[in-house]
């Protein structure tokens, strides 16, 4: 075997080794989350239904009073209530801006918007949270009352935060559409709006779905920006101005205080496992949508 | 002329949407930079901070952020690049390779606070290092390594296949082709992607709260012996990064002095990430010119989920000859 073929083999082996390392790391993370996340059910004997639907949270309750209560229902609801409306607002807005960038804007408008989106994407999560805390929260308090730290504040911060994700992924999807689609539509006498609505948007459907799913993943998994503005009261929210708690914010606040192995800590790992399952679900949805598209 | 009126209305709607996003962006960035720059002065940045007293500086936090980024990159970039090469060039799209991709993508989209939980257990508690820069850097690596791998895989996939085919046809081995043809052609995208990822690492906070810690030991910036406990270079000391600093001071209540510290930190953080993005753009273009000899647009990849990856998976060809 000549030396260059030897190098060929070694190079291949070495890159495989690195990939195996990354894969091993992934498996380790997943294994730890699954094993620690299920401990609350098998070791502490909490039923999954209680964990998901109950909102009674008293993880430190002594055994003689009936043992720890770890109902995460209020947190799961909080996560959904903060992130879903944010996606519902940002998805249409983001897709409209993406269409504007690709189809409608004059050259200068395209450049201005593109850099605006890049700048929005460059703002770190803590800074979003900080601006929410010192600007938005007092504003809500002054005009709507209720102290300001609220579901509404979390929703607003998240909807701005996920905009750049949705815009940039949709823009990329719209850009790669074949030009012929548009030409054919115009040749048939369609207006620009008809072309966008009936030809371009359906053609780019898979990237638009990807954009929305990624935005949802980001909104659902965001910790600090949300934790800073939602008040973190561990009860069911009663109105849009009442404080809430999300899965991520509970983990943020309790992970430093709870001792490994206790029901409290195990409950946090179970929430972590929920987040892991959510991200797996997001990835699978995206792949499914893309696969369908590729087959068609 | 119903359709024409609808068309006009729709156009107006798109302009309004774009204006709204511009307005949000302008007021947000304006707010951050205005408040940050008003209260910024040189002394403020260079003095070291003591908890919450007014007029304290943030130089240790800036140093920690840079140091954490450096430690993370030393581990992630080579590993990520090599793993990305394997995924793009050798792995193909069989069921096993697809499973590896799904696993890596799942890890890449795992919320950072969950990775923080993992880091707290594994690096802080199990190894006994406590809150330290090493724990922080390793947790950052777990968070970002899958991201780098996907980014590098995509940058390498973006190289036109004709280049590789030409090289193989001339009798080069696959590794020679990768090393002398594919990597140089992918270099602009690799460089740009590296910088964009670095900005992400620099701005990350959730993962660091309980791994790198939320405090700084007294530091002596003239002590460069990495074994010394007061040396800024000692990787086994706790180190609060700039992003974590913003979170901590603003969750401790809003005294006027605190407000000022947080304002300046936020402005510096935003400017730093913008600088990373700017550098990504500039260096990408520079490399592009050096490598290809012409000015072209660098395929910037702000997101490793660009639709093309998934499309290509189905039509991937194998450059492997055996």
Automatic annotation (TrEMBL), chain A:
GO terms for biological process: phosphate ion transport. Keywords: Cell membrane, Membrane, Phosphate transport, Transmembrane, Transmembrane helix, Transport. SUPFAM superfamilies: MetI-like. It is a multi-pass membrane protein. InterPro entries: MetI-like, MetI-like_sf, Phosphate_PstC, Phosphate_Transport_Permease. Gene3D superfamilies: MetI-like (1.10.3720.10). Residues 76-286 form the ABC transmembrane type-1 domain. The keyword Transmembrane applies. One of its GO terms (molecular function) is phosphate transmembrane transporter activity. It is found in: Cell membrane. The chain crosses the membrane at residues 14-34, 78-104, 116-137, 149-177, 198-220, 267-290. GO terms for cellular component: plasma membrane. Its main location: membrane. Part of the binding-protein-dependent transport system for phosphate; probably responsible for the translocation of the substrate across the membrane. Belongs to the binding-protein-dependent transport system permease family. CysTW subfamily. This is Phosphate transport system permease protein. It comes from Desulfallas thermosapovorans DSM 6562.
UniProtKB/TrEMBL annotation, chain B:
CDD domains: TM_PBP2 (cd06261). Pfam families: BPD_transp_1. Keywords: Cell membrane, Membrane, Transmembrane, Transmembrane helix, Transport. Gene3D superfamilies: MetI-like. The chain crosses the membrane at residues 12-34, 67-88, 100-123, 129-151, 261-280. InterPro entries: MetI-like, MetI-like_sf, Phosphate_PstA. It is found in: Cell membrane. One of its GO terms (molecular function) is phosphate transmembrane transporter activity. One of its GO terms (cellular component) is plasma membrane. It is a multi-pass membrane protein. Its main location: membrane. One of its GO terms (biological process) is phosphate ion transmembrane transport. The keyword Membrane applies. Residues 62-280 form the ABC transmembrane type-1 domain. The keyword NAD does not apply. Belongs to the binding-protein-dependent transport system permease family. CysTW subfamily. PANTHER family: ABC TRANSPORTER PERMEASE PROTEIN YQGI-RELATED, PHOSPHATE TRANSPORT SYSTEM PERMEASE PROTEIN PSTA-RELATED. This is Phosphate transport system permease protein PstA.
